[in-house]
Amino acid sequence: MTADEIAAAQAEAEAKGIEPVVRFRVPKDKTYEWDDLVKGHLSFDSASVGGDWVIQKRDGMPTYNFAVVVDDHMMQISHVFRGDDHVSNTPKQMMIYDAFGWDIPQFGHMSLIINTETGKKLSKRDESILQFIEQYRDLGYLPEALVNFIVLLGWSPEGEDEIFSLKEFVKMYDEKRLSKSPAAFDRGKLRWINNQYMKESSADEVFNAAMPQLIQAGLIEKHANPLEMEWMRRLVELFKREISYAQEIVEYVRPFVDGPAEIDDAAKEEMTKDVESTLTVLKAFRDKVATMDFMDATNVLAAIKAVQKETKIKGRSLWMPIRIAVTHESHGPELPESIELFGQAKTLDHLDQMIDQLS
Question: Tell me, what's the pLDDT at 1?
């Protein structure tokens, strides 16, 4: 177009109330190339960017590819790591660096993160997975575990270990070990990592993480007395190796507060395999519990051993009836500790109910 034609077109657009944009004139026949820290050498011809592109919109706001260059330069950014969906933006940004005469930072384009359940790119619209850090915090995931999990997305250390502190990550991190393949956001892996941190955390740390969940579930008052707090702390400690994140503690603790659930069919079948033997064990154990002056795990264990000595019944035939009668579960943490936390009154009540049913 001639200068007069451009002026006429501009006047016509202004008469219609059309606000102009500002575009960047793309150099002709120029190659933009860089050694990507993840993908290796990459090259784009200037013609591939799609023509002169907008750097300022009609409302006066700068576009991303213009603003991010100015922002990074002003902050003296030397290395840019981002998702590989930004690879096509890099030539445009290099044009702006060249135009201003600024040094171009080193670029590294990492693999995108996909949802292992859908196989699709993780995005804000993916409602099948929790999106925000505060959601994981509310569930009781530990900050250190989340950092551990996130660092391993798209990057792998040497060796087979997967649990590291942040200081260890800083010391060993090497961009050459960034993966070119998509990283998988695996919730099962996150739960496993958090469980490893739960196991290694102190009882008080896990209790502090679990308290908001227990209060919200109505299993303990926020200002409970010291004895109730200590009882709950010991319950949490009993199950801390079992839980992947703090919210899971609610279902483990609930039976101790509200009473255990109904016995399932498998447990009923276990209790009726040999009713005579089962009743012998339960009655003998009940007598021992009823005469205890102080009920703790040590005394409970001694009582179970005394029942074994008296009845000559041992192994599964001894332990399983007691476990199911008191806890209504056929598996769980250490039985003496569990019975101690149920307390003498509830333990006797559960034993009496089971004895009545079997009789």
Answer: 67
pTM of the full structure: 0.70
Instruction: Write out the H or E segment, with its range, that includes residue 342.
Output: helix 335-342
* Structure tokens, 164: 């590291």
CA 47 from centre of chain: 44
Q: What is the DSSP letter of 60?
A: S
Assigned CATH for 265-358: 1.10.10.350
Residue type at position 143: P
Domain range list for the chain: 19-110, 133-196, 201-258, 265-358
The CATH number assigned to the domain with range 133-196 reads: 1.10.1160.10
pLDDT at 15: 82
CATH topology of domain 19-110: Rossmann fold (3.40.50)
203 Cβ partners below 8 Å, 6+ apart?
233, 236, 237, 240
Alpha helices in 40-163 (DSSP H): 64-74, 90-100, 133-139, 143-151
Under the banding of pLDDT at 50, 70 and 90, the label for residue 126 is low
Specify whether the CB–CB gap between 130 and 117 falls below 8 A. no
What pLDDT sits at residue 128? Answer: 62
Architecture of domain 201-258: Orthogonal Bundle (1.10)
Q: Which residues of 1-25 are buried (b: 16+ CB within 10 A; e: fewer)?
A: eeeeeeeeeeeeeeeeeeeeeeebe
What's the CA gap between 358 and 54, in Å, rounded? 82
Tokens of 206: 């896990």
Question: Distance between CA atoms of 240 and 206, rounded to whole angstroms?
Answer: 7
C-alpha 155/C-alpha 170 separation (Å) is 13
DSSP state of 113: E
Percent helix, strand and coil across the chain, each rounded to 5?
Answer: 55, 10, 35
